[in-house]
Every structure is written in structure tokens, then in C-alpha cells.
């Protein structure tokens, strides 16, 4: 029977192998930041740290942006878990978290478990603030998107959330500036407020340097 530490170490090796060279902001260091933040929140919320850590480590293996489809990504996660984890309840918990935690234009229902709420908060915190800004431009560059198209912003419907012709700055309004009001935990909300304010300051400076009143 594999002990929990060996499972976590195996997950680390697997995720590093799969995502280490990703140029879109979903690399190993993003995973590690989300894992560490999830553990911080889990400690405050007295949640199951093993479930939180394992789900945080594996969450982007299933990301549909990095796979042919969401189903293909989830199959990879489920297959890995079945190979390395003997506890069916742990497998089911991690799969449930990863399959429902994405933003998806704000359409997904609330997370069912405290552990899911924590991992979702940790992932969303890494999407905002200084690192979130850097990741946003890394992702836009990896997809060949223009940085900014003055006067061209139109609010997207949830169904068109992942429209490929958006400027990178549009993503702040499509998603990032909405995240502080969608946090699940008190500690997540506290951290999100600070990072949200930094993004607002950044956008103000961005438009100032561009020479546009906004």
C-alpha cells in the first residue's frame, strides 16, 4: 500500500514531466504556487490537506486548454489516480474537484466540498495580482493574441468566453476582475482583495502610458 507522501512525490514527478516546459502560464511553477497556497488555506480551514495537495498538483493535467478536450484531460487524471491511489474515496474526491473547478465563463456550479473550494481559491489567486498579470500576458503571447486593441472591447456571453480573437487586456474584464467576488473562503477573499487592487492600479498605469483616458 502506497503511503501518502510517496503518492504526492509521484504526482510531483508526473506533473513536472507533463507541464515543465509549458509557455502559457500553466507550467510547473504555477502548479507549485497553487499547491502551496492550497495548503496555506487548508491549514486555516482545517480541511483535508492530502486531498487539497493532490488535487492542486493534478488540476492542470486536465485543463482543456492543454488537451484535445476536457474529457481527454480528465481521462489522464483518472488514469493516473487509479494507478497510484488505492483509496476510491480519494480518487472520487480529487476527480470531482478537478472536473468542476475551472472558471468556464462563470457557468460552473459552486464547489461541493471544502477541499474543492480551497483548491479553486488557490488557483484563482494565482490568476490575479502581479503573477496573474504576468501569466495573462504569457498566455496571450503563447496564443498569438494582440496586447490591446483600443475601443474594440465587447462583453462576451459565457458561451463565447474562450473566443480566440480577444486582446490580452480584454481578459481582465472577461474574468480576472470578477474573481475577487467569487472566492469561497474568508482567507481567499482577504488575499484576493489585495491582488485585485494591484490589478486596478496596473490597468490605470497601462492606460496612462498608452495615452488613453479610461
Account of the 3D structure:
- The protein is an all-alpha fold and 214 residues long.
- The chain has one domain: Hypothetical protein af1432, CATH 1.10.3210.50.
- The protein contains nine helices and no strands.
- Helix 5 crosses helix 6.
- It starts with a helix and ends with a helix.
- The model has no long low-confidence stretch (mean pLDDT 91).
Helices and strands in order, then pairings?
Elements: H1 4-19, H2 28-45, H3 49-58, H4 70-84, H5 88-100, H6 114-125, H7 129-142, H8 170-174, H9 186-210
Please count the beta strands (DSSP E, at least 2 residues each). Answer: 0
Task: Encode the helix/strand succession as letters.
Answer: HHHHHHHHH
How many domains, as an integer? Answer: 1
Q: What share of residues is helical?
A: 55-70%
Overall geometry: globular
Count of alpha and pi helical runs:
9
Here the CATH topology equals Hypothetical protein af1432
Class from helix and strand fractions: mainly alpha
Mean pLDDT: 91
Roughly how many Å apart are the termini? Answer: 59 Å
> Could you name the CATH class?
Mainly Alpha
Residue stretches low in confidence (pLDDT < 50, at least 5 long) are none
Compute the CA-based radius of gyration.
Answer: 18 Å
What percentage of the residues does DSSP assign to strands (E)? under 5%
CATH-scheme architecture:
Orthogonal Bundle
Largest sheet: none
Amino acid at each position: 500500500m502506497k503511503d501518502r507522501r510517496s503518492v504526492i512525490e509521484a504526482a510531483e514527478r508526473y506533473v513536472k514531466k507533463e507541464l515543465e516546459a509549458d509557455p502559457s502560464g500553466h507550467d510547473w511553477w504555477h502548479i507549485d504556487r497553487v499547491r502551496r497556497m492550497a495548503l496555506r488555506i487548508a491549514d486555516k480551514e482545517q480541511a483535508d490537506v492530502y486531498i487539497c495537495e493532490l488535487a492542486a498538483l493534478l488540476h492542470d493535467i486536465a485543463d482543456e486548454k492543454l488537451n484535445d478536450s476536457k474529457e481527454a484531460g480528465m481521462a489522464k487524471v483518472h488514469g493516473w489516480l487509479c494507478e497510484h491511489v488505492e483509496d476510491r474515496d480519494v480518487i472520487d474526491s480529487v476527480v470531482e474537484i478537478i472536473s468542476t473547478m475551472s472558471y468556464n465563463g462563470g457557468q460552473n456550479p459552486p464547489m461541493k466540498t471544502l477541499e474543492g473550494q480551497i483548491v479553486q481559491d488557490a488557483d484563482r489567486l494565482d490568476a490575479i495580482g502581479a503573477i496573474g498579470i504576468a501569466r495573462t500576458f504569457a498566455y496571450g503571447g503563447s496564443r498569438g493574441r494582440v496586447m490591446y486593441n483600443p475601443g474594440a472591447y465587447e462583453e462576451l456571453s459565457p458561451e463565447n468566453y474562450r473566443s480566440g480573437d480577444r486582446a490580452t487586456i480584454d481578459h481582465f474584464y472577461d474574468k480576472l476582475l470578477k474573481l475577487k467576488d467569487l472566492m469561497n473562503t474568508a482567507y481567499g477573499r482577504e488575499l484576493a482583495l489585495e491582488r485585485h487592487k494591484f490589478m486596478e492600479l496596473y490597468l490605470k498605469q497601462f492606460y496612462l502610458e498608452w495615452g488613453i483616458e479610461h
